């Protein structure tokens, strides 16, 4: 032990050490040094842009000269309530709601099976198997569906070989759901949306189910509940926050999309495609800006609803 | 939530779960299959034969190569910016409480929580107002903005799992703030930072909605793909590129998974 | 003799909570000093104030005569053994131990040699290449000790270092720590909530309660002459007699303490200076080396009597619950108590 001689630090006066001492004595200086770069980026670039956009929603667009003038007006926002524009909003909103509900129904059994009946390697396999399609290229997934749904494509081949032709014809005949072919029908567009956003629903539900203590289920069984009763009375209510959290993604992502409506489904604008068309082809940035307010407001309303369901704790 | 061995999933549940996985992967498999399709115009199924020739066709097209190069460059720069900003933000937010903390973390998440179209058109409106010509620079700005939160999430999760006493132990043993960062924090953060970077890279490489607005005349790979969809003559080349994009976005997810798995145990804690 | 650590009216506030409230302590150089108290009593905060992880809200802390307030942990000649050991998971054992030397710029050959010596000292000579996860709890604890001691601090801080170990290992480590401290002759400041641990190892013990110090004393005095009701009840078990009965028995209005092992069954005539009380035997607990008898006194208060089982044959059967009993103790075994030392709650 005596060989462990004392080595005293020769009071290091290097600039780095002095700087370190300063930051130690002034934790607020340290904190602001960390915060300033991200705050600058997000404050100046991101929030600044959002405000610029909102501001331009009040500008005037001249239909004849196709020019934008900075004369402030509320006309763009009131125009949102014109029947043609309002139709677009309703169409988009109902698709977002339908997609969220369908995703939850398809996702729940997968999430439930993952959380309750898999462990170790199988659980990891399921996890990756859900993560991969979630992260796989969005545009390629949308493209894959155009291949699947195309005339003479995979879907048609299966329908023919399974003898489901008449069923498909019947479904496509239902107004508001169908269309002339699968790839130009509401049903086709709905399928693509459900497919693309499904993983965003599975993972939050799985996480919320994973957090349920096993003793809870044993207690339910112990108290005489059959598995179905345990599912309906205990598991389903407790997975509501997870479903609500997942629906934030499915709802918000569907609401703002303009690529899928462009590739699959019948003609007719979505909010996203309207924004795109207004600023691009027409050059009416003020109207485009006013239209972006629609998803923002709808999402804000939606968030305030799901917040009550505990969605934020499940994120 | 684990089952006892005696209670097993019903057949209905098993079919729904495994069927769900098949549903999720079938379209991806189709892309891989069609990339080798011998036909040059049709979507017909099943394919008549398989070939590798479209790969050489695709990789000899200058427009494809340029789009790949641009997308790689943008993803690399955006990822770098996101790693710096995301790490700084997570270091600032993970432990101390201060006024406005909630607001800052909300602001970081907003670019991916709000539909991309809002971010895209907002940036476009600003660039136009400021007279900035859209191009590679503007694409990078957009991508970096929504990639920050990916890095931030990964790094802050690791910081929260890393026992704070490691940092105290380092300072206690005589290391100043810089030495502690260099020898203790960075090595412990390394794999989370890398995982976050890989995910950010994948996200940027694939992004199309924000990019549509900020690209100007530049054409990233996803934009090239979107443009191809209205040109049926090029289907085989499109299929090959689609498969390539699919792989570039899927491989990082596997890498990130292996880098961050087994995160349950708290680093540096000696307890059982 | 210089003071290793001196607290003068030190307070540390977290929001509205006073974790440490106007504490003054003098810790001698070379002393094995324990800070004992329940969780949340302020003992760990005091340790963190010495290490520099916290800064006092008020008051002054001197380490070896030097004002430490405002100094960063790395500017203090003090090292800590953490409760969770805080071993760096990405370094092997030797690099963990050598870390303090490395950041102080000690040459590589020297720091490896010193790290190896420190590992020898804690009987982990061959473990240098292992990663912390490959070690048992007791081994990690020793690495944490070696890592702190290799820097040869003048004060070593130990934050409940034995808390995660099982009982046998814990008792063994207590002995080794005490031996090590004598050998090195440096100041050990040991935080624990385990009163047996504190009593068996320390030269002096400070008993913390609600951010304040109730008593600083040698283990023997702490046990035999507890100053307050809190100390009497926290250190060992005690019969604290309060109220009218206390006045009747002792002649003073203050509560007093009488240890169960100082109470005995009445036999023969009452000697002068002895006190006798009567009650009903309520419960008998056989505890191995001793048997505890619980008496209900006439006023409803409980009185415990502990009798060492010195005979090979067990004498528990002589008594039955429900039977009336008389017990006695010597007047000088009674210790008059204060509510708190500082007089303020």
TrEMBL record, chain A:
Membrane disposition: Multi-pass membrane protein
GO biological process: transmembrane transport
Keywords of this entry: Cell membrane, Membrane, Transmembrane, Transmembrane helix, Transport
Transmembrane region(s): 29-55, 88-112, 124-145, 157-178, 190-209, 234-260, 281-305
PROSITE patterns per the UniProt record, alphabetical: ABC_TM1
GO CC annotation, single: plasma membrane
Location in or out of the cell: Cell membrane
Superkingdom field: Bacteria
Record keyword Signal present: no
ABC transmembrane type-1 domain location: 89-304
Annotated InterPro entries: MetI-like, MetI-like_sf
PANTHER family, per database record: INNER MEMBRANE ABC TRANSPORTER PERMEASE PROTEIN YDCU-RELATED, INNER MEMBRANE ABC TRANSPORTER PERMEASE PROTEIN YDCU-RELATED-RELATED
Family: Belongs to the binding-protein-dependent transport system permease family. CysTW subfamily.
Protein name as it appears in the record: Spermidine/putrescine ABC transporter permease
Species this protein is from: Pseudomonas thivervalensis
UniProtKB/TrEMBL annotation, chain B:
Subcellular localization, as worded in the UniProt entry: Cell membrane
Alphabetical GO biological process terms: transmembrane transport
Topology of this chain in the membrane: Multi-pass membrane protein
Descriptive protein name: Spermidine/putrescine ABC transporter permease
TM spans (from-to): 12-36, 70-94, 106-125, 137-156, 192-215, 235-259
Ranges where the ABC transmembrane type-1 domain occurs: 68-256
Any one GO cellular component localisation term in the record: plasma membrane
Family according to the record: Belongs to the binding-protein-dependent transport system permease family. CysTW subfamily.
Main subcellular localisation: membrane
InterPro entries: Bact_Polyamine_Transport, MetI-like, MetI-like_sf
Keywords: Cell membrane, Membrane, Transmembrane, Transmembrane helix, Transport
From TrEMBL, chain C:
Keyword Transport: yes
GO biological process: putrescine transport
PROSITE patterns attached to this UniProt entry: ABC_TRANSPORTER_1, ABC_TRANSPORTER_2
CC per GO annotation: ATP-binding cassette (ABC) transporter complex
Chain ranges of the ABC transporter domain: 5-235
GO terms for MF: ATP binding; ATP hydrolysis activity; transmembrane transporter activity
Keywords assigned: ATP-binding, Nucleotide-binding, Transport
Keyword flag Zinc-finger: no
PANTHER family found in the cross-reference section: SPERMIDINE/PUTRESCINE IMPORT ATP-BINDING PROTEIN POTA, SPERMIDINE_PUTRESCINE IMPORT ATP-BINDING PROTEIN POTA
Name assigned to this protein: ABC transporter ATP-binding protein
Protein source organism: Pseudomonas thivervalensis
